[in-house]
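Exercise 7. Predict the structure of Type 1 glutamine amidotransferase (GATase1) from Kibdelosporangium aridum.
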Amino acid sequence: MTRAVFGIVSVLSLLAALVFVPVAQAAAQLKNVLVFHKTAGYQHPSIPAGIDAIRTLGRQNGFTVTATADANYFTPTNLIRFQAVVWLSTTGDVLNENQQKAFEDYIAKGGGYVGIHAAADTEYDWAWYGGLVGAYFHSHPANQTARIRVEDRSNVSTSHLSQTWTRLDEWYNYRANPRANVRVLASLDESSYSGGNMGDHPITWCHDYQGGRAWYTGLGHTAESYSDPAFTKMLLGGIKIASRAANADCRPENGYTPIFDGSQASLDQWRQAGPGGFNLVDGTLVSHGGMGLLWFPVRQFSNYSVRLDWMMPGDDNGGVFIGFPDPQGDPWRPVSAGHEIQIDATDGDPTRTTGSVYSFRAPDRALRDSVLNPPGQWNAYEIAVHGQLVEVWLNGVKINEYTSNRDIAVGYLGVQNDGAGLDISYRNIRVRQDAGGGGTDFARGRPVFVSSVEPGSSHVGENAVDGNNQTRWGSVHADPQWITVDLGETRAVERVRLSWEAAYARAYKIQISPDNENWTTMYSTETGDGGVDEVLVAGSGRYVRVEGTQRATQWGYSLWDLQVIGKG
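Solution. The predicted structure, encoded as tokens:
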């Protein structure tokens, strides 16, 4: 299927020569950890078990542990000795102003903070600390068993966990949802227990904060937690992340929609091109044979960011493919028409190593090596495609940037199984559709009017503007048909993006109106070929209508997404 793209922004070509500016450090050696457990309120009986567990982790992993309830440890000369400070179920006001200032300076110099359970029930009058932990405690129900959703399984503190984790604890509600400011690693399923009041309920997270790094979990109320290997391994990972002894992407994540969520239902939407394939194991795609490509045929993407986790057990090979047309069963078509973001750290050609745009652009190798987790551990990619510009992040650090001369601005996504013995696993693949070239999608969530809905279906017009790439509007099987979106007020429109399902328009118009009665045509075509149409337009009005006058198939008209983009 050909891709229809109108008006790619040429200025992107100027970005190819940009110098990388992110600075990353190689994973630091973890030597000394301070466990601080002062309480000015409720004192958890589990604190001694927590101290013993962290000391055991220290003995097993080569770092010393100093445990104290004495706030006088919080001086610049003392704190600088520790790569991380664990606040173990602290409560109330535990530091004076000088001690607070010393800890702020410690974090500003790159220090690590680990908060466990009641660390969120601490220092309510110290706003800086509230920002560091991520959220303050609000309330909790009685101890009970609940189900945890593990959202980020590339993070070293949660990569050993299954997608769901059921355990007994005291489940904190928080005064505010921290999601917008932190990377949520795990959240509570409030339907699995009584007393949750947040709806979206993060329970474990990490984030970079004013020069340092913080990791927090609401788990750890019970003494039994600290003899649970799953919990103590998570805690060890949190200490490594906070101290930067392990690499992790702790940037907040918002606006992404899963296209592979670990379920068989989501895998059923994908299609294999070429030999080999993938087995589904605990929410993970595990390769076998090849060389083939598992690709997502539901829709093409433009101006987007895709994130996923990957792991190689040894010297193996794989890659993420972007911007390619329908491979028609041939895995080599994406090689020649799209780009592969390579996964293979040992290839002698730097343009064919992990983080490269395969055969075209090597990553910043020193930067890549400083943030790459070794074989057997999970890594996280973010790959952004805006027009011809490709950007690659590894574990939260930008390692590559390339402006392509290929027609990649609109295309499909896929993951490679390179061959027998070249094993690779992928999981948690999700996409955020961006407003390419800047701008706001005025149509998102706005009222929609349609000429018809396919009888007996749930494919209502609102599906085209809900931001979910797995819902769509579908019309009856007749001409003409139209969909209109009410922008709510007069808007200056610069671009309309139409993501067609298989039933698309051969001929259609894009029109604008101030009153839903008098229409001006901004664009028309009689040679539509489906896929994603990104159309540059110019007009002002409150209502935008897409009117199909000739179907390209025997079916109706079907849109995954209708975006109306402009400044404002």
